[in-house]
Write a sequence for this structure.
């Protein structure tokens, strides 16, 4: 199974939330990898990861971050792959800091932002993105949507 | 050229902003259509549009809306295609109303939200999404990213 | 006793709050029913419920939802009955997300929004609405208002 | 035609917005009256108005106010009729001041709050409320909803 | 000792915070009384209290309230005594609801608002107000200010 | 006529708003003075002003400021007179910056905060404060309240 | 070792957070002192401290404060040394009160503001500031940055 | 005159605000350079600039940015020089987006944030920083502070 989705987060304290994205990807049979790297403390690691992501076969990057959540934007600056941002909530400012830092990207470099703490939905979105070029995955999504309507809890 | 991206908005007063998304898609040679339909005033039109979008060949839906911006979420409820939400600003509450209404989707049904008023970035994101299954488009994105770094204004 | 009020919520985790509305309706002898249905995961269930509510004899719908609280707006899109929205608070953004998503409805399709977590007041409002056409209920409301002024805790 | 809806506002500078509610009520053939009275400067006038509203035949009160928008809440304290609050925006705080002051009512005394500046929707809601006891009005609402879906601008 | 300050609150759940104001007044030898009365549930009680406060010898009223904190404004509407508002925090919206509802009063009817939860400071302000006409109290305030600068905890 | 109220502001660009306070004080026959002084650029001037205010015969200080509105708090730190803060709005953050900086004072040193831009109400509050020790002024306030209820615009 | 950095806070309840700044300074071999003094309760102590700081050899002041966080601004008003503000969070308003009160300083008197609760970063910034005139400290910062990139937790 | 301060901004539309920083630096005889570079569109240019800044003799970097204002944080990630962030306001969200994105940096990599639009204060702060190692500049700051107290407008 190819690794198509990279899951990143700025701090290992975010692992408990972000690894839920992996669980959802497993359900759809989509290969993934997960890594902790800070856009501010280890920017070259992030640049290298983002710059090589497409060549290594990744097709989508999910990046979770709190506070001034720059990680998704920095990744997006260094790749043409779609980048999904997951704002994380750390206590102050109601999480508006991470939400605004993820979503308010300038023209040219979007980050596809999901809800505060929305790691699972980031994974569903990644599957929807991959499915635009993969009829088998689209079929799985249709089944999944039917299950949702029947009460499936994500 | 196939129509791969549907651009929706809740009110024709949003046309001036939302049609900029079409301009960006043209640049990448991606076919699109644009329609005005309100999730609240004409919900069946939205349901029909969303429910048939995949069968009609669309691969991504961009939906812009202001106030309690439900349009992207309602579209997302009726399709498995990726839905990109563009919050629009109408004067009160700084646009936080439309941003929160777009992005804070519950588990299972994501909306890929871009910046308040970010119609152009919605189009860039749509191209990135389509490019996950289209090497020619990925090449165009790499060229585009180079142009951005050289000063291209979107 | 006819069932005049439908109480809906987007997730069964909201039951503890929303069933308080039923307790208030009982006090006034107003019949009610309660159901969990998500506007995003099971939109057809919501559409069917809203579309048939008037014919089934309902006169008011109360809908509670958190995050991007679309449930009341989606119900309102599919019925001409008055819809009361109860924003629910989930931790991030202070509940402003659900409040704005409930209340900022566009021209033509109102949602009568009460306080964050205000399920009891939604029920009082439902009784006030029904009483506009029911003198006996108006009398009960006058008694209730007198009791409130004497220290009754709702 | 009976006067069933009272439209109030705290300041005559709010008249241009609030009289739009009357226009919508006219469309449905619902009688209304409109008055300017401040909950803070002329509280007795408000108390008298609210206290006698039901006896004078009113069935719904719409109250618009800006800043610390107490008018709807004060009216609601003195009547058992349903009170619809219209928060108005005066420049600072994005209108959050009037929205919160309208909607965050304590248990026992609800205000049915609509969008910031939503005078037209207040009128639609008033008609929906009156229609719970009036089949002819319900029929008009069904026609109106059909017109909305066909593009009617409120 | 004359009773010069009335301390009000909207709900007895606010007593633990509000009675701290009494403790501060005791320190300055200023007589006070404390009562629970809701501007929304028992408006006539509030109107009577405020309307007779000056005649009964009160010189300042302190009113604490949460949510749509109308109590101080309603009191201010019915008396010419200075009214001090204490916004109280109930969980949602960070307390901005009660703060805005207290402070954003319209021209003509001010409420002297202190910090969210600031019952003690309301009492200090009441003493400062009374001291404008009472040299002995001004002397006590000067001593108190000296003690503050030496580390006194209020 | 004694000068009983000092009106301060942080910048002469605030004069147009703040001098309205003087107009209201004139109406009540209360003497006042007005000065521009910045708590940050000319702190000693502020300290001297505040420290000598009581001895010079002032009984209330009104201080208007925008942005991080420290002026009222700095004055309050250096006098035992009641200090009324007027938050002023400068474009960004909706005025919440000046409001929070005025009102959220720590225990021991209150600022009596009025609405954003509420210079007139600051003057009314100053009159109410002075009236606690001045029966003639209380009589004027009762007349004024009557005029307000009859439609007087402040 | 000279004492180059003064660490201040408004209340001893802030000590647990603020003393972390000292720990970071120790790591870089920068001498520091720490004191509790309130800009509002003991303003002269603050004025004296700030006014003499440069002469006593301090080169940077770090000031942490909550609520209407005036301490950093008052210090900045009385010294030409760079002042670093640390907004602290006390429960209400999400910490926006202290953040806005720190950062929104008027032209002429800046406060270098760090994140809500960011005492450690205040210390790193102090070291960066001192290093502009100290090559040995710059070398330590380069080592530290390398360690950060290798996973050092501050 | 050595170039000690680099002034950056994310878009040339920010030039009118940001070049005011240069004017202030001129007043103090501090050499500066100014450049437009986007952290998102031209990240390598930013990385190169930041990475070489210290070696080229810069001692402070001022970076202004709007929306998700990542520029100061990205610069700070690639240099050990102090980085001053100037949040810029673009219409939506009251500027809270750029403020939060600048200031809420994670432990280890601070950005010294000034007020929204505070380019002049960024320059004053830069001078204060440089003055920690330059007695002649400290003398100029003392003169400047005296002029401020005498009414100098920055």
């Amino acid at each position: 199974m190819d690794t198509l989705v990279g899951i990143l987060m700025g701090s290992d304290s975010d692992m408990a939330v972000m690894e839920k994205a992996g669980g959802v990807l497993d359900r759809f049979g989509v290969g993934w990898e997960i890594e902790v790297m800070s856009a501010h403390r280890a920017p070259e690691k992030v640049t290298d990861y983002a710059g090589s992501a497409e060549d290594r076969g990744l097709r989508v990057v999910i990046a979770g971050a709190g506070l001034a959540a720059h990680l998704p934007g920095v990744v997006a600056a260094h790749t043409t792959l779609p980048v999904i941002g997951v704002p994380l909530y750390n206590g102050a400012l109601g999480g508006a800091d991470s939400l605004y830092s993820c979503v308010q990207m300038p023209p040219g470099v979007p980050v596809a932002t999901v809800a505060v703490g929305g790691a699972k939905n980031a994974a569903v979105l990644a599957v929807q993105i991959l499915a635009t070029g993969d009829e088998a995955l689209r079929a799985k999504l249709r089944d999944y949507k039917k299950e949702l309507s029947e009460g499936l809890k994500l």
The first helix of chain C runs from residue 15 to 27.
